[in-house]
Task: structure prediction
Amino acid sequence: MGEPVNVKKPAALFVVAVALLAGTSVTASAADPAGTRVTGLQEAAEQVVGNDRMPLEVTADAVRYDGLTVTTAPEGNSVKALACDYGHLCMLVNGQKFDFYKCQTWKLTNWTGNGPFTNNQTPGTVAKFYNQDGSVRWTSTAYQAGTATWDPIWSLRPC
Result:
């Protein structure tokens, strides 16, 4: 006889795929985190948060982490197209909208090109964008909106 076939992971992926096609959200769990790794959008989110953090929720339209939501970028690559809730720091990078709302340092990879940002946090809150060596590349004091060059930004701290 051959090796036993492990059907748990393919079965979980099938359930997740069917749920996503039906528009149902899929919540990550410690018991079966593999079921959430099915979207290109999640891969984009992992460019920021890495593989060490599990998403809280993955839907066809968004990947939600503790303090960050990643969605497909809205039509247009302008500040006007970038809606950003009060208390949030938002930006468009490589076709995705990153919406940060938790005060912590976020490590970044593969951020390239230019894109709009909106620092819609409480007035006076300073977001910092860092070089690879940890030095500050530039800052944004709320409220501020504009266009930024993302490369090379290696980390950011919204507050």
In short: The helical segments are 8-21, 40-49. The first helix runs from residue 8 to 21. The chain is about 15% helix and 35% strand.
